[in-house]
Queue: 4 jobs
Job 1
Amino acid sequence: MFLRLLESLHGHFGILAAVALMHPAWLLRRGKPLSRGARWSVGLTAVVTSVAFGLGLFIYEPYREIVKRQLFAFDRGAGWLFETKEHLAFAVIALTMGATVAAFATARQRTPEARRIRRFSAAAYGAAAVLCLVVVALGTYVASLRSFPEP
Amino acid sequence: MRARVARGALVFAVAAPLAYLAQRLFERWQGGVGDPLGVVRDAHTAFYWRSSTAVWLALVLAVVASRVRGGEGHHRWPPFASAAGFTALVLALAAFYP
């Protein structure tokens, strides 16, 4: 029951992260200094993405013991898709953390380099958003095949 | 100083996934085509080690990048085209070598 709830929360936070990551990508695309609202957007996006990733890490061990075997036994292709999802999730959190630190470090600077760094941050957020969408799609598909047992 | 930290952070963002996937490719190269039994029996330490090593390597590269004197002439890559290429590369590697 508890694991199923956490799995559901993980999925919902993942969807939220995929949508949230698009916001700073859009806000920072021109490289302008960050307004107060933009700083909130960057910070909250990092929090939501971290929560989604953290929940995934938290339930991974029981998932591996309870569900993963059944998943591979049921459909080998789906099992490999789960592995792909795992790799992409790491890429999403790395991109998000890097872009967040870069955006906050240059939030108010008006130099050409800071402007360029913010544009690169926007690009990193965009890449993270695309990869997160793929992660969400793969996760939803895999969860539709095998999941933690119902209480 | 702040620009240097930001530059290092962006290098981390790019280097960590590439370091992770490079390790995964090395594992696949060493172990051959994946056997599901190997994945199922895996104690999951592989993922933690792979992630930790990738983070460590990316942090080292980030520190190096932050210490390199930056300038307008040093990085002329277009941000969004670079990100699109990076996304395609990561997607392809993760999909074809799960």
Job 2
Amino acid sequence: MALRTPLYELHVALGARMVDFGGWDMPVAYGSQIEEHHAVRRAAGIFDVSHMCIIDLHGARARPFLRYLLANDVERLMLPGKALYSCMLNEAGGVIDDLIVYFLKEDFFRLVVNAGTRDKDVAWIASLAGAFDLRLHERKDLAMLAVQGPEARARLASLLPADQQAAALQLGQFVGVQLGDWFLARTGYTGEDGFEVMLPVSGAAELWRQLNELGVMSCGLGARDTLRLEAGMNLYGSDMDEQTDPLESGLAWTVAFDPPQRNFIGRAALEERRARGVAHKQVGLLLTERAVMRSHQRVLVEGLGEGEITSGTFSPTLSQSIALARVPAATGATVQVEVRGRLLPARVVRPPFVRHGKALIQI
Amino acid sequence: MSNIPADRQYTRSHEWLRTTADGDLELGISDHAQHALGDLVFVEVPEVGRELAAGEACAVVESVKAASDVYTPVAGTVVAVNTQLAGAPQLVNEDPYGEGWILRLKPSGAAGDLLSAADYAVIATAG
């Protein structure tokens, strides 16, 4: 049977169309997915992301462990509550998962990993954590909601007790804080400002209803996907996986090669590949024809060979199709994409396509 | 659940057909189909005058999620297409049996295996 989040009954009651997502029965849209998308770009929307896995890591050697486990360097995390985006690699440099790590205390870090990779992630981390004397705690007692959009922070903060509102609104970018029952973080996956809230399962449905009453629109995974793609953010399993490395997936910026003496899993493989020259790169594509690019479509690059669309969709903000693609490293300004049997010209652009409600690409 | 008006016939591939006052056939996709596809972003219609064979793909409806062919169960000549859909594909979502019609054709043969609203409801409910 499909897995359900604590908000499953609420989604059904709200009339959501439910679909399978990595083994979870999740809402794809409640009404129009495009309206949900625009609500987040223009005001505020709420997403159930309780299917994602929260893992607390306790122990005095949590920091050295994470410096070994992750390709990005948690040594950058000095302010309590500060978060970092990182890939978790295997020895071959392939991406096991991408995740967010929060530094809470020197002996307490929190990881948020993808739903579809939950089991292999937990097994992988547990197999390595023993040597560092760490305790893993999967927080199945917590639900997680993402409240996103230019109005999101103010509306969510208005539901907090007066003495906590200022702390919530003063929270810096990519920082989280425990406020009463809530762990509130200024993070997200939409390219808009907003919060992600981790809270006890028992309070999640009530919070959702309260936000609806404040005009925050219920949003499904459909809008979540078009928003993240406009924001140029990768999706694990589509834009990178264990067969690809961060360097060819647009994630080189998340790999901390400095300091050179830090040994992290996958480092040797990435350094070897970097020295040899990375054969592929990730680019953004923009299609001017009236068609939609989809994942796995072929990309033809004149004189250089082929690439592949890793994520493609129709962009509600730009009213045309956008995509992320993996192409030969020397690819220039234009390519052709094979869409339903036709070769269509596409422009190579640098993601993000849209951030904070504004198009960043000249059409 | 989904709306299935009794004044027209349906296909197993989720098109509907309605005979107009002048004997032409109007074709669109069902409420069930538009709901399953989600928000439409492009509708590709054939040229007026094109001859269609029964079972031929004659239009494409593309949503944020996926592209789908639309088939005609009847052979005929395209006599009109819904030009509004070029700028407003969402009409198919909002009013699949009215403003969201796709094309009209002058039939040149008999219709194949068409379903009544009641029979189509069984298929639409099953999936």
Job 3
Amino acid sequence: MTALAQTPALTAAAYKSDYRPVWCPGCGHYSVLSSLTKALAELGLQRENVAVISGIGCSSRIPAYTSVYGFHSVHGRALPVATGLKVARPDLTVVVAGGDGDGYSIGGNHFLHACRRNVDLTYLVMDNQVYGMTKGQASPTTPADWDRSKLTPHGTGVSPFHPLAVALAAGANFIARCYAGDPNGTARVITEAVRHPGFSMVQILSQCVTYQPSQKEWKTTVRKADVTTTRDAVRAARWLMADDGLSTGVLYIGHRPIYRPELQASCSVDDLESGFVV
Amino acid sequence: MSGDTVSIAISGAGGAGVMTAAQMLLDAAAKAGFYGLMARSSGPQIRGGEVAAFLRLGSRPVECLDDRFDVMVALDWLNVERFAGEIVLDGASVVLCDADAGEAPERIRASGAQLVPLPLQETVKNLPGGRMNMLGLGLLTGLTGLPEDVVGGVVAKGLKKRGQEVLDAGLAGVRAGMALVAASEVPACRLGSSPPAVAPRWNISGNEAAGLGCIRGGIRFVAAYPITPATEILEWLAPSLEKVGGVLVQAEDELASINMIIGGSFGGTPALTATSGPGLALMMESIGLAVASETPIVVIDVMRGGPSTGIPTKSEQSDLNIALYGLHGDAPHIVTAARSIADCQFTAQWSVHLAEQLQVPVIVLTDQSLGQSRAIVDRPADLAFIGRREMPVAGVTGYQRYALTASGVSPMAIPGIPGGEYIADGLEHAVSGRPSSGNEDHSAQLDKRARKLELFDYGDHWADVEGDGPLAIVTLGSCSGPVREACARAKALGIATRLISLRLLAPAQEDRFAKALEGADRVLVVEQTHSKQFYRYLRAHYDLPRDLKVLSRPGPLPIRPGEVFDCIKAWS
Amino acid sequence: MTDDVKDANRIDSVELFLAHALTLENEAADGYQEIGDSMAVHNNPEVAGLFLQMCKYGRMHADEVRELATGLDLPHIPPWEYSWEDGESPESASMDKMHYMMQPAQALALAMKAERQAHAFYAGVAASTANPRVRELAQQFAAEESEHVRLLGEWIAKYPPADDNWDYDPDPPAMPE
């Protein structure tokens, strides 16, 4: 066993709170929670040194179901909250979690810049291609012809967003796709994503049984990617653009510079005054 | 000249170096032991635009521009009409201009000011490497009687990195300017004797002072998006924070800025952003998040003309309403206002202290006229305010982040404290932090968040109250300087007034205000808004005498001490 | 080593076997708990009760395994390196089959499937291992799982099959945020 030497101090269950999720029975987010807690156990992190940051939406409820520190912020702003936390407190492990609407629509600009800035964060996007908290409207990843929402009775007519291709173009340092139906595989990817320095983008296909019941088919259609992890962004881009969005695995590991300002004082506050003295 | 000060305007097109000359004049005055203030105005061009600098120098601290200018130095007449409203001239004013620049604009001529054409261009042409602005500096050195060696020292410091040739040309320009004045019939406009320095003097802008106050208060994390006229706070903070172990992150937008500082503060680092009206509007939702999650943050709003993009380069106090009332829901928070350039430091530092102590967002209002003006001030006294956040001890058991305490403040765990793990939430929550839509939790948490602000003792810092006359002048922010000066003029005429300049706008201090107003039977409200926002705020929160007048005007022109004085005189 | 084990599904040490058994029983119990809680939150107390009951049995089995492991140094295995057939612990009743209006017979059928998978795992280990003690334990555990399957069968028989319109909900979904 490769990890024999590293026995986790806490079990996965110790990272769960006793607060019962409001997610629908059958929701993919349950297994993401399980994957996350397994990864935290595997990483051997103390609870007080981990923070899970989210915005608003079904999946953004996840911090409350963990026993670590967390922030359930406002819609679309999980990434900036997490960025501020990690830059101010580089000693912490910061995981950002949320959904496709939160991350790609209202928070779209932050997504681009978080990839670009490459702060050492792990971003878990539980993608179910729908807004679940507001009765099932189309999200940026919803197929153009999906016509089950009253807001878009003829389908959105808009091409879906390609989060991983965007993440790659914007500069994310680690890019993976997982499936909630594969919790142990997802736990492994989250573990690797946290360990890899810089901004790690993990898209998790996580079915919505209420508004996207056809996602049950993911059980048979999602498969391991027929590609090995690459460091070559050009190769990754070519592969991503040809993929149908249902292949899982770690697709890209980059080695771009990390944004991690040093927080070392070199003078006292009083010294700052000297510039003003007449 | 208004008593012991001299007011000077310098104007010229871009490339003439007006700002550099004005800055050097202020520096030289400071070195010579005088106080002073320097404001600026400019056209919309990024380069090459017309610029005007406004200085007021004197032997006492200067908190505002005067009603008029004693001297104007016009390096050219290009687009100078833009500043006609700002450069108030009268029959006692002197305008030095270039004899070859053509006729002075109509409004200058109509002012009655004495026009003194001098061979400016010609003189500069005959000086190798000569520049108009150094000649202008020389003119003003001659007029004010500032010592040549002091001015020369400032010029040397400013130009030495440009090389000896440039420096020599600069010094030659100054001498040539002084010679032109000496040879002309221009009436002198001398500064009196400089007062002895009791404390070291600083040359500081309101934006720098605000930045320093924040760092002194404990701010070590800043995230912000550039915006006029707040950017200089960030420009000063970025290198300064780095030196004291902090960091400034340039965010992708104001939505990111405000949420980044919430994240930084959640991590235990006192955090700040600085912005102006449009940015503040974008931040509102998350300021509410900081209220609900009880995350201390400080937001400095350097106000400019609004609404929308408005007048980015000019001052106004019209963000008052959004700062006080812009949050959705019942969201008690603190709003403070700095009342002078030096006070930007005090108010900023105090605001950090309040934010940390009360785990609440504080919006600090300053404005363009404070932020982007420089003043020579006595070094402000050291303040004891340091942000101190109450925290639980490591290993705490049964920790409840939003416990209902008598003070309303509950210990705030920060990541790294074992046993303190909790989820901060913008959803209404129970004492544990868990989401709750229950009536009891909502009421209890609303009460708690209101209580902590209501019960806190803000001490004497809530306002500056000066004098005890029956006419109270109630004002805020950058209007305080002109009001104070007007009160001094009134006093010289034997008219007793009292000045109440509010530093703490929210939560309103009803009892303190009533006490400050005791014995006053009339109130004059002075503010720089179009819709009388401050007056309406006062009406909403305080008991005011029936006898009340409002002096309210929007930007871009500053409220002048004379306007306030005229109101006082007319009412006495 | 990992790959060899996976290929042959072979577990040759008692420690390795008990590590698998312990995780299998723990995850089974955790899974039942999660489903039971979820059903309770969604006001399906009957099904919630069934799963919480299953959880209790799972915890008991985990305790038994823990007892057998007393004094042994069980290896730590990352979740994704266990010798499970499809990467997931075999007795996990899969959440993605759950429905908030599910009826007891359906719930028990899903539990039955999980128990059968557990049986298959233990039987597989017994058939492939080279270690007689592991074989003995695996046979014993497989027999227990058979017994669970039998009991579940009896349990299911007490409930009528699900109605035709078992998932009909006349109300639309709510909008919590």
Job 4
Amino acid sequence: MNQAVTARLRHDRRERLMLTPEGIALPVTIASRGTRAGALILDLTIIVILMIATTITLVGIAGGTAGRFAQIEEPGAIGQAIEFLAVIWIVAMFLFRNAYFMYFELGPRGATPGKRMTGIRIAARDGGRLSVEMVIARNLLRDIELFLPLVFLASAGDDGGAAGLAATAWFLIFALFPFFNKDCLRAGDVIAGSWVLETPRRKLETAMSVEKPSSDSGGPAVDYSFDEAELMVYGEYEVQTLERVLRENRKEALSAVRDAICLKIGREPNETDPRAFLEAYYNQLRALLEANMRMGQRKADKHS
Amino acid sequence: MASQADITEIEAAALRSDRFRLERESDWKRLEGIVSELEKSRLRKISDEDMLALPGLYRTVASSLSIARETSLDAATLAYLESLVQRAWFVVYGPRSSLWAWTRNFLGGGWSAAVRGIGLDVMIALVVMVAGAVVGWLLVASDTEWYHALVPSQFLDTRVPGASREILAKTLEGAADGSGLSMFAAYLFSNNAQVSILAFALGFAFGIPSLLLMVHNTASLGAMLWLFHEGGLTLEFVAWLSVHGTTELFAILLAGAAGLHVGRSMAFPGERSVLQAAAEAGQRSAQVMAGVVLMLVVAGVLEGFARQLVDDMPGRFAIGGFMLALWLAYFYGLRRAEKGEPQP
């Protein structure tokens, strides 16, 4: 395992290392509880809209067919047509309640529309394949985690009392379950062996050393070169911080960093282009550190 | 392959790690393109060549990441590679691409292997269900007031203690015409499936609520059995019940057993960690539960149609007995999957 990767894990409480079957440690980020709650609310809204739309459509069709058959006076056929629509309605409601989450989580993105919108997805906790069984198991538990206590709460709402209290307690136990384990697992994730992660997405930026040296001051190009003693005051952490500063390319940050480096290595900060100075320092420092890396010598940061 | 223009760019790169990156960038970009299309489920836009190259490209990029971690300090490249490998990993190790393949494997042995895998829990659940029915019978036999407590009120039509033999016999008759049956079947399925999902899900609380739910359900069955016994219609009632009951009760038995299996694995994980034990049990139980829903579809059809349309006692017994034999043969007779270990 890489030192830099493990060092980074200490910075973020939601980062975990997952080992792929090829033996490569991949840093993954656990989705936050707030994001997951937001995704769930989005999904529930979509389900309710789908249910209402289906009901309205079917009732509309039923009304239409009843009118049509009334003209040709055939009461038996009306009954059968209405019955058929009722069957469709019952099956559709069952599927919306139970199959919505499963259908979408089995897709290539492993996420329901709500999860997609919030940028999260499900994955197998052990780094292996996400199986159909996992998706089934984690979604069957939704019934006692969410739907049932809410139905109880709604039916006990009038008299309140002990039943309402019990329903609230039931609901809270499962709703707060993710707060009592470090991976934010809900009860369904425990049963299924799955977890919810943030979807990674990152563009490849251009290589630093290929970029044309910028010279917006227009003055004569100054040849910056640093000896090893001047470079070795910093380590890997600093070289990557410097890279970030260069990519963000903000004027005041560039001169501030240039001044700090000059102070550290004991040079006089002259009034030339700070970016050219920093690019030269970055390239030489990175070349030196990478050369040492190839020899098996790593320097994590300026303290080591 | 790097083109001529790229080669000059590679030579222009001052750092060895940047040259490493520029040489491999075209592979990374190609993988990123394939993965992006797969994520949007636009399978048709991916050529066969790309599809075949996907596993190889994934490994190439994964090894690029390993090398870059040891040789490069370019944080942007490392972050890009990490996210690309992760995205490709999700695709390569995502849910099995074909649901059809899973279904075939499930019906061809995965399901029955999972049912056999929870054998002990099925035995416990069966004992609990029989005990529930006996308790229901005994309670109502000692005091008929129990009947109202045990049988849910929507069942309370003419089937109450003290009802005459004729009235009871009438409730067992089939319906003459077939209207309304398919809706009835769909309703029964939806209702029963929800109950069995509940029985399974309650297993999370160490299985005890699952058992209570099963006792409650079979106690009302015992109470009704006593009622028809008093009316001298025991055999007729059993025949009426057996048409769908052998399938439906079997399904509920399996659902309760699956819940119990999860609960028991969490309470007594043995050598494994609780989380690992729960995940293993949960995945096995999920297979059983997928089958339970399938069985309840069959039970709904039998209950809605066959029970109402087949009116004579031997016919009803024949259907019920045949279904029971079919399920038993399927779960315990078919041992093909035993040779290879059941899929994880």
